[in-house]
Amino acid sequence: MLIVILVGTNPLPCYLSAVYLIKRYEECNNLEVILISSEQNNEKNQIGTKSIAERIEAQLKNILEISNGMVKIHSLTDINSDKEIKKIVKELRNEDIKAHLNYTGGTKTMSALFYHHMSEAFIDSFSSSYLDARNHKILIFNDEGENSNDLRTFEPFRLDLLRISELHGKSVNIAKDEYRYKDAANKLASMFDEYLKGEHKHDFFDSHNGYNKSKLLKHLCKHDIFEDKKLLEKCEIDECVKKLGIENVVSLLPIKDQSLYPEGKKQENSRIKINKLFEGIWLEYFIFNKLSNLVDKEGIDIYFDVKKSPPVEFQLDIVAIYGYQLTVISITTSNQKGIVKLKGFEAMHRARQLGGDEAKTIVISFLTSDNCSELRNDLEEEVGSVSKKYHVIGYDDFTKLYEQKSDQNLFKEIIDFIKE
Fold this sequence. Notes:
Blueprint: E1 2-6, H1 11-24, E2 32-38, H2 50-63, E3 71-76, H3 82-92, E4 99-102, H4 108-122, E5 126-132, E6 137-141, H5 161-167, E7 172-174, H6 182-197, H7 214-220, H8 234-244, H9 247-250, H10 268-292, E8 300-308, E9 314-322, E10 325-331, H11 337-355, E11 360-364, H12 369-383, E12 390-393, H13 395-399, H14 409-419
Parallel strand pairs: 1-2, 1-4, 2-3, 4-5, 10-11, 11-12
Antiparallel strand pairs: 5-6, 7-8, 8-9, 9-10
């Protein structure tokens, strides 16, 4: 049995197709898999995909128990050459074997030429398939048996973040609690929960803007951005902290940072860390903790504070994976449309880099309903409306969290989007 898989610039669907077809035809004699990639050719405006094919081959060997030589790579010098593709098919032709073509990857020209020549060469012994990105099913043509079900629901196709990133040639790290502020962040998250439930009125939150941090941040940042180049006195900072009712949060910080007013330039890092905590890390913990209570029974894996390694570095608040499909969740306490829009577009870009073309994005902020609608329109213009790969959540969604009987309505909505 000969399986030919066309390799494009997105490795994930090609890898999934290979796994499915190897398992489908594993009982056949002399099973052989040929990955058709392309050589880099700038003159022909041709992108090289040989390195992608090599990563697919490596992952297949890691996941499946396959014999040496079962998977081979063949690179085209010209993906538009009818002559070259016809020659390859002729070399593969064997009267005693069946042949199957998966044209999920590769260009339209590659697909058309390979299909044409293989169907002519193998005639009744030829079949083909395609991984439909909309329903996550392998569609089989000219062969007995039904199409696959949703591949995301089967164990062989469940991939962790490390394996997905390796397929795309990226390296990621699951960050530790770098700022060591988990206790303080969780405390703020629980206070927000109390505020939403109406159990306690915390001055730290604002019914109009969602989160009142402006006064506090003025005390935590350098004073020169407001009036002069002097820092405010510690007593003023402490007074602000007391007024906001977060003394108990500050007490959970590392002892060396509890003053909120570190002395000397060497302590500038502490002020930056505190800013990160109060600017939104606590809301990331709030979302992560809520989702953590739901994802196990839904077959979803989630990762907190994911960092891409050099040379191009970036950080993702939360990454969720359903089967093999990746969703990036971008979180900010901002209620400024411009800021949230920038974070949303960056999250979409990073999601595609890490999870391929079918990766999805959720943008969570304290935008008003009107601004959320405008942001949805902006995102739709960017990605189109053929398939919904983005979801926007604003402050009003939080205020409604406890209006219904189930306190999981908002987060169930997130889960449903991840599994769509």
